[in-house]
Design a protein that fits this description.
Layout lengths: L2 H10 L6 H9 L3 H9 L3 H13 L3 H13 L3 H13 L10
Helix pairs in contact: 3-4, 4-5, 5-6
């Protein structure tokens, strides 16, 4: 993965599974498809799958899902991770649950 490529694909929503399609797949009850594409490096799928994993208490798996994106140094991935940690009450380094 390359941060510049990720940024371009997500900004233009070309060459990737677009954000609105991920939402629609979940609305129609197809989380398995989102999980599959998340594992294949589709950012919008990975972001949403990580959020769903976190909601299920599977936080370690959620962090693993975002790890390849974080490894690129891509700011959007860093921001997403921070938002997840904050929603879990871990923004200050302390776990609330």
């Amino acid at each position: 993965m390359d941060a510049a490529d990720l940024d371009c694909r997500t900004r233009t929503q070309t060459g990737c599974v677009p954000r609105h399609l991920v939402s629609r797949l979940l609305e129609l009850g197809n989380p398995g498809t989102v999980e599959l594409w998340a594992g294949r490096g589709e950012w919008f799928c990975a972001r949403e799958w990580a959020r769903l994993l976190g909601e299920q208490g599977r936080r370690a798996e959620a962090l693993e899902m975002l790890a390849p994106y974080l490894a690129t140094g891509w700011w959007t991935a860093t921001e997403t991770m921070a938002e997840l940690l904050e929603s879990w009450g871990r923004a200050n380094g302390r776990q609330s649950c």
